[in-house]
Amino acid sequence: MNSICNIGLFLMGKKGFKRLDFILEKKGNFDIKYVVCSRDNSILDDYFKDIYDLCSRNNIKFFERSFFENDSNVDIIFAVGWRWLMHENLNKIIVFHDALLPKYRGFNPLVTALIEGDTEIGVTALIANEKMDSGDIVGQEIIEIKYPIKIEKAIDYVSELYSVLMYKILINYINKDLSRRVQDENEATYSLWRNNDDYRINWSESSSRIERFVNAVGFPYNFASTIYDGKEIKILEVTETQDLKIINRVPGKIFQISENKPLVICGEGILKIEKAIYLDSREEVRFNLLRVKMS
């Protein structure tokens, strides 16, 4: 191996930007040979330009995904926030995944973990292979969380774990001390991709689950949505309130409105909408109709 460890990076999003910045600031026997990036239209700030600008300021070769040609002149490749299967140099690629594998293989694992109410979240580094997130694990970092928690804060927590784990792996790799363990297939679970339909609130669920859902798909994602008075609105802030013994419970119906904050009946529990905006105008919703059922 060369005295200098040559690194290739496949990066997306805030976590990818932070890892690039981290490696540039960190001193060690490693050098970034290139960065490959892609735009992400599913989030409000994809950090594509930030990654490009950082590469430009530091004279690092930058490639947009569709224009990258395989370069084997690197010792190790890190994939952070990357969502495509990779087919070349697999023995050199270490993928970072926002879950404690083998749990939540697949898409949006952090969002799924928050919706499910997991008390621990984290990141796994694994050797790439041809199957989704099933390669040997070379490291994991875990953090405990408490609810309510918004996705932006959870991303920040996990992002810090990325730095810790990436540096450990680099040092172990340079010292030829990178261990690996096989995933237990019997413990594997999967998380599906999300589209616009998956942002719609299901009022038949419990108020606690809906609160977690609203917080899990907020910024930088597109926010939870519902239909109010025939118009689609985005729900930005909610809080659980004390449940009532409603005999003819109908999920989605507004129970009462106080200071422009409606109480909405859920399958179990009641949720207060603290802030919402109209999808088309982005203006704040004025809740002035009581006899309305959200859908």
TrEMBL record:
Chain ranges of the Formyl transferase C-terminal domain: 197-275
Alphabetical list of InterPro entries matching this protein: Formyl_trans_C, Formyl_transf_N, Formyl_transf_N_sf, Formyl_transferase-like_C_sf
Alphabetized UniProt keyword annotations: Transferase
EC number of the protein: 2.1.2.9
Protein known as: Methionyl-tRNA formyltransferase
Domain Formyl transferase N-terminal residues, every copy: 89-147
One Pfam family, short name: Formyl_trans_C
Recorded GO MF terms: methionyl-tRNA formyltransferase activity
